[in-house]
Amino acid sequence: MTIENCFETILGNSIVLNDTGHDFVKFIHASDIHLGAVQYRNDYRSNDFIQAFQEILELAIKHHVDFILLGGDVFTSLEMLPGKLTKIVKILNDFKEFTNGTILIIAIEGNHDIRKFSRGIRFERRGQSWLKLLNNLGLIVLLDADLDALSEEIFELYNFDTKRGGKIQIKNVMIYGTRYLGEKPISFLSKIRKAIVKNDDLFNILLQHFGIEGQMENVPGINIEDIQHLKHRVNYLALGHFHKQFILENWIYNPGSSEAVCSVDNSFKRGVFLVEILKKFEKFEKKVSIIRLINRKYLWETIYLNNEFRNKKDIEIFILNRLSSSLKYLNFDIHPSNPQMPILYLILKGKEPSRSCRINEKDLKRKICYNLPLVDVKIYQKFRKPLKTLDSYILAGKS
Q1: CATH superfamily of 6-291
Q2: How far from the centroid of its chain's Cα atoms is residue 233's Cα?
Q3: Rounded Cα gap, residues 367 and 358, in angstroms
Q4: What is the pLDDT of residue 307?
Q5: DSSP classification of residue 396
Q6: What is the pLDDT of residue 138?
Q7: Which of 200, 237, 148, 69 is nearest to 156 (CA)?
Q8: Average pLDDT of the residues in 190-208
Q9: Cα-trace Rg, the chain
Q10: In which region does residue 32 sit, left (phi positive, over 0), alpha (psi from -120 to 50) or beta (all else)?
Q11: How much is the pLDDT for 1?
């Protein structure tokens, strides 16, 4: 008995390869997939990240690309349930089999890829990551460089036997890549610039995992002026790290995360870039299209509690009635695995309930999900504290 290939189920049993010649290259640039994330400890949310990754692979097949770039944080940490990892490996095996190995997945390690836990220590010195495992299995090409070597030896050509190297050429595109270089990679970038060979016959891509200052509020990044020297040798700077999508100066590209890793990400533009490179009259022309993925929907609701409630049950009934009224348009017939079933971010405001009416978020979430077609609920209590009277201050002084 054979296990069915997931791409044959979705896309049929044939693939049209990109055979438009050496002068035309097409690729997908994605990043920050965060496989293994277990947001809110919800298994459906965990599967959302895997489904987003599978959708990226499906897009690569549909658009007949030559390769896929992954700009780091492919995994959220080294902490991974065996069943999830097995599912990811099967998807990649199916992809390689379905495409006959013609679409390479080229990746670098981000800061999350080398973390032991989602909020834990990094294992950079010990050199562990799931990406190294996938590379050793021949399912991806993992690029890294020896930044302690001489300039001409920093980026060795990727060797498919040893499964090591810092650059790879596909048609007339040369892709350079290194692992995450820390929060301040400026000193490394000057070495990288010297090691990149400028050749008018090649379109140079540099795959890196860092952010650009000012693109995300209150999040540190590199000053764009400090990387201008790369522009003379790099045609396309492919970034990962920031979950917000941006394009700068028509040569710096950050696709953003493929799924919302936290509630803030829901306000960002995210997705993948579909890039077409054509060499025409001895010059390279570039076209970049933005593709949004089919992500889990999210809703924001605010409920004000201004009345005096006698007990916790009265508050729960009040909240459930309000939500049932405002969310009555939701589809009750879909399964939680369907991204059309949303996550609810619920903000509770108004007068803070008394101690006897204190809200148990876990119980309230369970009751909301039982009564409404929501895959999960994140509750934010933003109550105003009751004003202290003069008498209360006097009593406090006497105690």
Answers
A1: Metallo-dependent phosphatases (3.60.21.10)
A2: 28
A3: 16
A4: 76
A5: H
A6: 97
A7: 148
A8: 96
A9: 25
A10: left
A11: 43
